[in-house]
């Protein structure tokens, strides 16, 4: 039951060591820097130190209650990330699979639209452009 | 009242600084925005489209009509893009 | 894009090495032997050699088309498994998170009710009892 | 026609063997079950409740009215409990 913000890469295997003991179902989500156009060199992620840790911890705790999780973990990176690098992960553990799936899906919807991170795409030519929030992410959050 | 005002992402870029300490009598976030927007062109530009501005009061997401009584830190930023 | 059936444990980290290159979203599900009553010593899983591999491969391929997956993997164990041991895993990779989540959820529903495995609980006292299929698992499958 | 008939889980236990090779003229799975159930008490017990029996023809899930023409392997088992 923990949330972390860091610049360093994380190792999914290390995060899952001892995670969810006693659970029947463990779900993980890993977000990876994707380059759809071939023009992107890196992603830069800005965050709000202090508030970020608090928000991730709050969302994790809410999910734990709502879906009766036996364990959860959120790790989110900030700073400059190259294409192909992992951005963040969520892991959820529950007795049954549907709770674990739903909790991970729920947490992702919250993190996308309500965690204080801002992404900027850096092109091979050095140009930087802030990533716009997506209406589809707001819609996803409204499901809950 | 003394407030620390923080800016992130393109609001930070438009205003030209990540934070400032100000004196204000603003009762709500919306009043504070009016105060700030009146300071100079950079602030005015940052707050030109309030539909694109989100805020947190003392590190909790808040809406623009949230009261500021007792607040110490207010942050302004565009819609978040985490995950 | 592979399915495997084995008695040996699997290592999630090893399974994910190189998995889903180019994807933006990777979801994993791991099922773990759970003991709700404190009476269970192990789970014994029987399967249908030949058909199992074919069924897992078919379900993975169907999910890949339906959810536009860029990669998928299914590993399912059989034989005797102690409480706390991983039973099986599914990993899915897609451009966006909803496809990866849905595909993993879909595959789990298929595996639960349509993959030729049969579980038997072995008690500390040596008593063995076949696990009944759950109506809720059939209902879950009907969602798709 | 010569068929390999396979049994899994409690059907295997009731029948007392994991597989048998038989000669049959059964046109469908349901006909085959009638043939098998008539063999002895063990087979009859295994097929007493058809609602609890699933089958595969040549390693593809099939329903009880599936035709057997050309089939080489038929398997009977309880509802699956994978995952």
TrEMBL record, chains A, C:
It is an enzyme of class 2 (transferase). It holds the Pfam family MoaE. Keywords: Molybdenum cofactor biosynthesis. Pathway: Cofactor biosynthesis; molybdopterin biosynthesis. The keyword NADP does not apply. Its EC number is 2.8.1.12. It catalyses: 2 [molybdopterin-synthase sulfur-carrier protein]-C-terminal-Gly-aminoethanethioate + cyclic pyranopterin phosphate + H2O = molybdopterin + 2 [molybdopterin-synthase sulfur-carrier protein]-C-terminal Gly-Gly + 2 H(+). It comes from the Bacteria. SUPFAM superfamilies: Molybdopterin synthase subunit MoaE (SSF54690). Heterotetramer of 2 MoaD subunits and 2 MoaE subunits. Also stable as homodimer. The enzyme changes between these two forms during catalysis. Converts molybdopterin precursor Z into molybdopterin. This requires the incorporation of two sulfur atoms into precursor Z to generate a dithiolene group. The sulfur is provided by MoaD. Belongs to the MoaE family. This is Molybdopterin synthase catalytic subunit. The gene is moaE.
Automatic annotation (TrEMBL), chains B, D:
SUPFAM superfamilies: MoaD/ThiS (SSF54285). Gene3D superfamilies: 3.10.20.30. InterPro entries: Beta-grasp_dom_sf (IPR012675), Mopterin_synth/thiamin_S_b (IPR016155), ThiS/MoaD-like (IPR003749). Pfam families: ThiS. Transmembrane segments: none annotated. It comes from the Bacteria. This is Molybdopterin synthase sulfur carrier subunit. It comes from Paracoccus acridae. The lineage of its organism: Bacteria, Pseudomonadati, Pseudomonadota, Alphaproteobacteria, Rhodobacterales. The gene is moaD.
